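Hi V.,

You were right to ask for the full record rather than a summary. Here it is.
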Amino acid sequence: MRTKQVGILARRTILGGLVAATAAFAPLGASAEEVVNVYTTREPALAKPVFDAFTEKTGVKVNTVFVKEGLAERVKAEGAASPADVLMTVDIGNLLDLVDQGVTQNVKSEVLEKAIPANLRGANGEWFAVSMRGRVVYASKDRVKLEAITYEDLADPKWKGKICIRSGKHPYNTALIAAYIAHHGEAKAEEWLKGLKANLARKPAGGDRENARDILGDICDLGVANSYYVGLMRSGKGGPEQEKWAEAINVILPTFEGGGTNVNVSGASVAKNAPNQANALKLMEFLVSHEAQDVYAKANFEYPVVAGSPVDPIIAAFGPLKIDNLDLVKIGQYRKAAADLVDKVGFDN
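Predicted structure:
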């Protein structure tokens, strides 16, 4: 009994410190059954509309802690006394890191397994994708007449000096290169990456939206970027200047030869020592409801992971998304090799 009381006291001590240190962390409810504590690497404001809908529907309060870096390490250090119930992050590499660090638990849920395709969740329920963004191509409306393109085509010499992209070491691009390795092998991926580097209009830099800016500025004709940024720009959420950037581009959904469009995900896991495990599962299952998927689509312009859920009209206008059939875990396994290739070919130099 004393051991149990010490554990509870330690958990309350950690949680109390987080409340004091993190403004985004709301006060706990009177009962542990009425709350769920979420550690997230995404800005809490991005998920707030979804959490608000969950609370309205269930009465369960969602407390959020924003952990910019070192999520797995933080939860591991807190150990059995950690107050974390649900861990949310972006990018398959980060999700797999949570599993590798031993801070998740396997979840068995018919709701989750039915809603999420097998290649978008852990084989044993260690993690589940909750939204997607496609790695797409921005093309100049004025200078490029193009309806389709493959990722392989990006290395074609006809695009020499015409392509903009952010750092090859950014997780979005590391995942794309890892997917290329999974499809074609490391030798061909190296050849492709050299060809892509030769086609760059400028040194890899900035963010994805800057690719649209530089297309408008006639620095490049094509940009490799994420789909949801177009929604942010065209909706006015990025301001009038970014609306002009978005007006300058068309969006093409590229595919791998014999495959589909590369997607990356935001995802969630139930924490290994979740003190509110029932509420954690309740939140996870809500995240894949049509209601929550609709909120994600409207608030963040992301693709839903659940078939039949609506896509925001701005994103839907790109055309039907054919998701690449590679298992995300396989992509994750090649991420180190992808990062090593970026260094080997001097992609960012």
